[in-house]
Amino acid sequence: MDVYAGIEHDIQELIQWDNLIQDVTKQLESHFIDKFEAWVAKQPKKPFVIYDDIVYTYEDMDRMACRVANIAKSWGLKPRDCVAIMIQNEPSFLWTFYGLQKLGVAVSFINHNLRSSPLVHSILAVQCSALIFGSGDELLEAVVEIMPQLHSLPIFAQGVRRPLPAGISSFDELMQTTYPLAISPTLRADLTLMDTCCYIFTSGTTGKPKPVICSQMKVLGVCSGCRFMSTMCLDDIVYCVLPLYHNTGCNMTVGAALVAGATVVLRKKFSARHFWSDCRRHKVTVIPYIGELLRYLLSQPENELDGTHSVRVVFGAGLRTDIWQDFLKRFNIPKVVEFYGATECTAFTANWSGKLGAVGRLSPLLNKFDPDNKVLVKFDLATVMPLRGKDGFCIPVRVGEPGLLLSKLPEHLIGKHLYKASDEANEKKLVRDAFIPGDVYINYGDALVQDKEYFLYFYDRLGDTFRWKGENVSTKEVANAMGVLPFIEDSNVYGVEIPGQDGKAGMASISLVQGARLGNEELTSLYSHVIKELPTYARPLFVRHIPQAFITGTFKNRKVELAQEGYDVERVKDPLYFLDHHNKTYTALTSKNRSQFLRSKL
């Protein structure tokens, strides 16, 4: 590496991080809801949320939030109490959240896609005083189904246009009969930055979803950090299709816009077909993204208007290297800021320079000034825990070697929970005595890798990585390689067990671009491509053709259910194929040839 280039990168990074710290520190002078009320006073008539072409000004949203606050006050709720809300992407989510915050009441964000026992678990995971759910017959039916398990919890429906069953009260009637009287900030005057603002649930990939404790400080940090990264300002118009029940939607997107005093165009559900027409119509300037969202946009048929819009920056996490340049070029995007973080953790990395594929940079010099002291260490794939050297301490990895990301736990969080969960669940997230006796680090559960210039790249989510033929297989690396093929829209890679074999073999569930087919030519092309691009141990032995991508609400590939079904031709109704070296293609897997294939030298 050029020493001078490295120093130049270091200086630029230090300036960015110093400016970010100063910006966030300034925002911590008041609470999250104070930011909202300040903008209401300063620009009451400015559009804050545009939803279904209806404009809600800052003043409009505040009046609705005041109604919510007065209702909650009449219930006897006080600061540090909690209310659970299960509302889709619509303005009522925001005014309900902000209204409860006016009283200092914490809010538990419930994923509106949950049903049955996972829904019960999430609602009862924190000691909430009430549940407010939003519009949609499907939400009403989901709540009715579990009511007996909620132990007489007060339940209120908002935006439901049909008679309500016994046990559920109308929140709409309360809103109509309650005056939007201003709430005095003195009611929340004793709240501190360490008090809980909201609970946001993990995905549950390592067990049941766990409610992450998001303090006022943490929420302000996320909002301010994302505002800074995207250089969001008063004149920006931000497009939000990300779920509000998650950090990505409520804080990373709407919260950042709120801190900036900007406008948000809110859409109930992501639509690849309407995405750019929405952006053009509303003159959107900032697009937050997560997971595979940008890949779905790229998979749409090309349009002569693809590069015609007002977008100046996209920012988020999960932009895969294999589509990075194609996306920016096709849609004429001036700037992308890719970052890496986790809801339950306390630090993040950011790619300020636009380096292709990078999620940030971490040089030895930068680390000396980094209070989070982020480091990549050797790890055990089975336990997703650091390996220890003879001295008992963690072992940093070399350049180019995938390592488990750790960051130092801030002093104000030592002894406190990251999750509203058991001591055991919280302890699993921590690494004690990592480098010196008594220190405490957070385990991110992900592997990253550094290049010679100290740029960081996401390598894999370690729960997804598997071993085959004595080698670690990165699902992300395999998915990136397969995604290059023009007929593949999305590739979801995971490991499946084969009787009598150590480790897990690779399997990929693929969805196709619109209008494509998976015929003999495509199967042969897929075979040739994986043989050429991937080492022997990483080539998927099985391929499943699914009609559409199987994703979470935050646009991440879902793997657990697919891996459980595996290559069982009796359970899987989608077309299945196996890596057929004899015919140099992927051949349809049937009950007749499966046994023969499994007995072959895999």
Plain-language structure description:
- This protein is of the alpha/beta class.
- It folds into three domains: 1-26 and 358-411 and 429-463, no CATH class; 31-340, ANL, N-terminal domain (Rossmann fold), CATH 3.40.50.12780; 466-599, ANL, C-terminal domain (GMP Synthetase, Chain A, domain 3), CATH 3.30.300.30.
- Helices cover 32% and strands 22% of the residues.
- The protein contains 18 helices and 30 strands.
- The strands form seven sheets. The chain has a seven-stranded mixed β-sheet, sandwiched between helices. Strands 16, 17, 20, 21, 22 and 23 form a six-stranded antiparallel β-sheet that branches. A five-stranded mixed β-sheet has the order 26-27-28-29-30.
- Strand 18 and strand 19 form a beta hairpin.
- Helix 1 (3-27) crosses helix 8 and helix 8 packs across helix 9 (247-260).
- The protein is globular and about 75 Å long.
- The two termini are 41 Å apart.
- The mean pLDDT is 92.
Please give the structural blueprint.
Layout: H1 3-27, H2 32-42, E1 47-51, E2 54-57, H3 58-74, E3 82-86, H4 91-102, E4 106-109, H5 116-124, E5 131-133, H6 137-146, E6 155-157, E7 168-170, H7 171-176, E8 196-201, E9 211-215, H8 216-229, E10 237-240, H9 247-260, E11 263-266, H10 275-282, E12 286-290, H11 293-298, E13 313-317, H12 321-330, E14 336-340, E15 349-350, E16 360-361, H13 364-368, E17 375-377, E18 379-380, E19 385-386, E20 403-408, H14 423-427, E21 430-432, E22 440-450, E23 455-461, E24 466-468, E25 471-473, H15 475-483, E26 488-496, E27 505-512, H16 520-533, E28 542-545, H17 560-565, E29 576-580, E30 585-588, H18 591-599
